Amino acid sequence: MIKKILLFLILVFTSCSEQVDLIVYNAEIYTVDNNNNKATSFAVKDGKFIYVGDDSVTSNYSSSNIINAEGLPVYPGFIDSHAHFYNLGFFNDQVNLKKTKSFQEVLKRVIEYNNSNEKDFIIGRGWDQNDWENKSFPTNKLLNEEFPDKAIVLRRIDGHAYLVNDFALNLAGIDKSSNVDGGEFVKSNGKLTGVLIDNAMRLIDDIIPAPTKEESIKALISAQEIAFENGLTTIAEAGISREQIELIDSLQKTGVLKIKIYAMIENNLEDVDYYLNQGPYKTDKLNVRSVKVYADGALGSRGASMIEDYSDRRGYKGIIRTPIDSIKNLAFKLSGTKFQMNTHAIGDNANRIVLEAYRNALFNYRDPRWRIEHAQVINENDIDLFNQKIIPSVQPTHATSDMYWLYDRVGKKRANLAYAYKELLTRSKVIAFGTDFPVEDISPIMTFYSAVARKDIDGYPSEGFQMENSIGRGDALYAMTIHGAYANFEEEEKGSIEVGKSADFIILDNDIIRSAENRIPYTNTVATFIDGELVFNRRYN
Fold first, then answer.
1. CB-side exposure of 234: number of CA atoms within 13 Å?
2. Contact 291/372 with Cβ under 8 angstroms?
3. Whether 209 contacts 121, CB under 8 Å
4. Could you tell me the residue range of the domain that residue 119 belongs to?
5. How far apart are alpha carbons 471 and 425 in whole angstroms?
6. CATH code at 119?
7. How many structural domains comprise the chain?
8. What does the pLDDT look like over 483-494, one tens digit per residue?
C-alpha cells in the first residue's frame, strides 16, 4: 500500500508543470544564438530564460503571466553601443534646434523659449549649418542684439561646436587672444564670431551651471522612458564622470533605473586612476570597465582630423583633441589592465593615429576588444589595421545624415571609405551599432534601416547611399544585439534569447528581417522587457 501511495505521489509531482514568472508563446522569435535558431515560445524565471523552444512550453510550465504574441516578432533587447544617455534627459529641457532651416529660425526658437522660461542661462542644441541655405558658420551678432545681458549657449548637432553670445564669452573670459590646444575660436576679420570648436568649448562648459541632483535624476528617468519606448535595454554611455556613474548605480540599486548601462569613464586623470586602482565595477545593471577618449572632432564642424586638407577649406586639416603622445601613453597604460580603450576617431588621420597606437599597445594581448568609436573615414592604406582585436563601434544614421554634404567636405575619393560598415565587419568580424543620441535620433529601427538600406527616413536616395558599404539584415540585427553585448564583454549574459541569459527582449509590430524595406522605418515597439519585467507596453496588461 505504501509503495502505491509513493508511486502516486511521484506521478502527481512529475506531471505538474513548473511554475515560472512569464511565458511568451505564439511568437516569431529571433534568438540570435550561435546557430541563428528560430523559436515560438520561451519561459522566464528569476529574470532568466529557462526554456526557449516551441509552443509545448505551456505543457511543461505554468504562470499567471502568459503572453500570446499573436505571431509578432520577438528580438533580444536592442543594445545601443554608443550614446549619451545622461545628456538625453537634459536635452528635453533645452531649446530644440534640430531641423532648423536657417539661423533666423534658430533665433526665433531661442526667443520663444526665453519668453516662456525664466532662466538666466539658456542652452540649446541641434543646429546644423549644413541644413541651411547659407552653409557657413553663423555669427553671434543677432544673439548679442536680442540677448545683451543673458548667457546663450547653442550646441551644434554633433556636440563639437558652440555658438555663444558675447555675454557668455565675457563670463568665460574669452577674447580674441584666447588660444587652446585641440580647439578653435572661430574669427571673422580678426573678431570672435561666437563659434567655438571642440576643446575651446571647455571654457564655456566651466561656466554652465551644474545641474542639481534632483535635476539629474529627473533627466535620467526621462531618458529611460524614451529608451524603453524605442526597445533599448542596454546603453553604452560614451563618457561620463565618476560622480555620474555613482548616481546611476544608486538609482539602479533602488529600482528607479531599470535600464542597463555600460559606462565609459570620462578621460580625466582622477577618475581613470580611481577605477584602475579599484578594478572593473560590475552589477546586474551596470558595467564599468572602459575609458572614453577623444582623438578628434566631427566632420560637420570640420573638427575631424584629416590626413589631407578639407576639400571645402584649403589649408586646414582639422583638430587633434587629445595629444598624440597622450593617446599612445594611455593605450600602454590600459593595455596591462582589464579596462577597454574606446576612442572617438572620425577623420582618417585620427583613425590612423588610434589604429597605430592600438597595434603597438596590444601586440601581446589576445582578446582586448578595444573599440574605435565612429570610425567614419578610413584611409585605404589603413583599413588592414582593423582586426579581431579592434571593434568598430559605428552609428549608421551618421551616414544618412552626412551624405548630403560629405562629398563637399572630403571629396568623393576619401568618401569611398567613409561609413564602410561591410568592409569593417569583414576585417574585425564584429561590428557594434549605436546612435550617438541625442546627436542622432534614438531609434534603433532607423539604425537598422540606415545600415541596410542606406537611406534616410524619406527613402532618399532611392538607390541607397554607397550601397557597397551596406550590410545585410542579419548582420545588422547581430550588430544591435549579440555583437553589442560582445563589445561590452557581456555576451555570456545578454544579447541573445538563450537559456541562462537575462530575459531582456522586445516585441515589435513589424518583422524587420522579412518586412518590405519601405515599411521598416515605421516599425514600433509593442513591449520592452528587462529581466523578464515589462517596462514599456503598448498592448499587454
1. 35
2. no
3. yes
4. 87-205
5. 9
6. 3.10.310.70
7. 1
8. 999 999 999 999
